[in-house]
Specification:
The complex is a heterodimer of chains A (about 170) and B (about 500). Chain A is mainly alpha-helical and about 170 residues long. Chain A has a two-stranded antiparallel ribbon. In chain A, a hairpin with a 2-residue loop joins strand 1 and strand 2. The longest helix of chain A is centred in the N-terminal third of the chain and has 26 residues. In chain A, about 30% of the residues are buried. Chain B has about 500 residues and is an all-alpha fold. Chain B is about 75% helix and about 0% strand. The chains are: A mainly alpha (about 170), B mainly alpha (about 500). Chains A and B meet through helix 1, strand 2, helix 2, helix 3 and helix 4 of A and helix 7, helix 8, helix 17, helix 18 and helix 19 of B.
Chain lengths: ~170, ~500
Amino acid sequence: MQQDKGVGSVRLWEVLVVVFFLVFGSVVAWDSHRLGSSWGSDGPQAGYFPFYIGVFIIVSAIVNLYTALRASDLRAFVEWGQIRLILAVMLPSIVYVALIENPWYGLGIYVPSALFIAVYMRVLGKYSWLMIASVSIGVMLAFFMSFEVWFQVPLPKGPVEALFGYA
Amino acid sequence: MGGFAVALSWFNLLLMLAGIVLGVIIGVLPGLGGANGVAILLPLTFSMAQQPGGTTSAIILLSSIYWGALFGGAITSILFNIPGEPWSVATTFDGYPLGQKGRAGAALTAAFTSSFVGALVGVLMITFLSPVVAKFALRFGPPEYFSVYLLTFCAFVGMSKGSAFKTISSMMLGFALAAVGTDTVTGQLRMTFGLTVLLKGFDFLIAVIGLFGIGEILLTLEEGLEFKGASARLNMKVVLETWKELPRYWRTSIRSAAVGCMMGIVPGGATPASFMSYGLAKKMSRDGAKFGTGVVEGVVAPETAAHAAGTSALLPMITLGVPGSPTAAVLLGGLLIWGLQPGPLLFTEKPDFVWGLIASMYLGNIVGLIVVLTCVPLFAAILRVPFSIIMPVIIVICAIGAYTVHNSMFDVWLMLIFGAMGYVFKKLDYPLAPLVLALVLGDNAENSFRQSMLDSQGDMRIFFSNGLVGSITALALLLLFWPIISMALDFLRGKRGKHVREE
C-alpha cells in the first residue's frame, strides 16, 4: 500500500507560517512607520509602539524559520484522510455562514443552522429523516426561545421567522 | 462578610447552580472549554448587568461556569483520556489507567475532592491577599503598570514548554491585532487600510471563540469521530471509601496547593503547575515508581494544583486588572463591558461586587463538588451523544456566540478564520494563550508604556526609577531569560560536579 504522504510536511507548514508572520510583521512595521514611529512634538507618535511590535514579529519569525529548517521535520502535517474530515467541516461552515447573511438573500441564523445540523446528521450519522427533523428543529427552537424571548438578544432573522411575525 | 449575604440570595444561588451545570457540560464537550464557553455566554449577561446588583449576579453566573468547566475537564480526562483543558493533561496520566482498571469512580472522587481542596486554598489566599495587593496597587503609576504587564508576558516566554520564539511570535501577533483600529491617544487610524470593518479593531472574544472553539473541533476531528470511554458509576460507597483513602495524601495535597497558588498568580501558570506538582509528587511519594499505572495520588497532585492555580489566576485579575489565564481574561472583558474597571479601585468603589464574587467562589465550589459527585453519569452521557449531532450544534453555538458580541456577521467570518488559524498554530506548537492575553492587554500595555515614556521624555530608565518598579521589571527580565539562566546554572553546576569527581 502506498504511504499516506499527506498535505505537505511539517517543515513546509512551519515555513508557510513563518512567511505569514514575515508578511504580517512587515505590514505592521510599514504602516506604523507611515503613521510616524518616532518621537513627535507631544510625545510618542501613533506608530511608536506597534512599529517595534512589527520588528519583534519579523525577528522572531526569522529565528523560527532557522529552527524549522534545521529540525527539517519531513513527517506529514496532516494526512489526506484527516484533511478530508477537516474540509468536510470547514467548507460547509463557510456555506452556512454565507447563507445567514449575504448581499443577495439572507436566511437569518435559525434556518441555516437547522439545515447545517440536518446535513451532518444525514451524511455522517445516517439518521432517519424523522430523527433529523426533530433534533435540528428542536435545537433551533430552543435557541430561538432563549435568545429572542428570554434573554432578548436579537439574532439575524430571515423570511421564515417573518412568517411567524418575528422580523 | 456582607459578601455572603449577596451571594446567598435565592436568585444568585440559582444562577450559581445553573452556571455550574452549564460549565460542566461545557467542560465535557469537545470544542467548548472554560474560555470560549464564558465568551459565548457573555453577551447574554449584557441585559442582566443593567439591573441594580446585576453585575454581581452576572459575574456569579460566569465564574460558576468557570468552576464547572474546571470540574468538567477532569471527567473527560479520566473517562475518555481526553483532557478538557490543558491543565487536565497531567490528570490523564493516572486518571485514565485508574478508569481502565475499573476504578473510575475512585479516580473521579479523588479528582473532584482534590479540585475542591485546591480551589478552597486558592480562594482563601484571594480572600486574605487581595485587599493587601489592592492597597499596594493603589500606589501604582503607569511605569509600575507597564512593568506588571511586562512581567505577565515575560512569564509566558520564560515558562513556555516549547520554543520561546514561537511564544513571542504568537504574543506579538496578539499585540499587533490589538493595535488595529482607532488609536485612542491621537485618534489616528492604524492598520485599517481604508476598511470600515477594521475601525473597531479585533475583539478578543471572537479570537477566543474561533481559536479555542472551531480550532479545537478541527483537532478533535483528526482523532476520529468516536469517543471510547470507561463507564462511570459513582455511588456513595465508592465516594466514602475514596474519602477514607484521601487523607493519606495530605502531604501531596498541601504541596500541590502551594505550587498551584504560587504558579497561578503568574500568568499561564495552571498548566505548568499541574505538571510540576505531578512531577514533585512522583519524586517525593513512597509509591513514586507506580505513578502512571493508575494510583490515586497521581490524580490528587495535578488536580489540586490546577484548581489552586485556576482560582489564584483571578487574584491579579481583580486586584490589578491583569488576567492570569485566557478564561480570567474573558471574565475581565466582561467586567469592562458591564462598565466596571478592574483594579485596586474596585475594592473601594464596589466592595459589594468584589466580596460578592469572593463569597460566590466559596459557595460555587461547594455547590460544584455536590453537583459533579451526584451527576457524573449524566455528564458522561453527554459525551455519548454521537459526534455527528454534537459537532454541528457546537459550531452553531460558536457562530451565535461570535455574532452576539457586536451583532456583526463580519465577526462570524473572523471566527472561522481564527478557527483555521488556531488549528494550524496548535499543530505547530504555537501557544494560543499568549496571543489572547496580548490581544486583551495590548491597548492597556501600550497606553501605560506611552504614558511612562511621556513622563520620562523617552528615557527607558523610568522602569528602574524606584525600588517598586525596578524590582518588578527585574523580576520580569529574570523570567524572560529564565531558560538561558537555568541552562547556565546547570552548565556551571555540571562543570563543578565534574571538577570534584576529577579530584
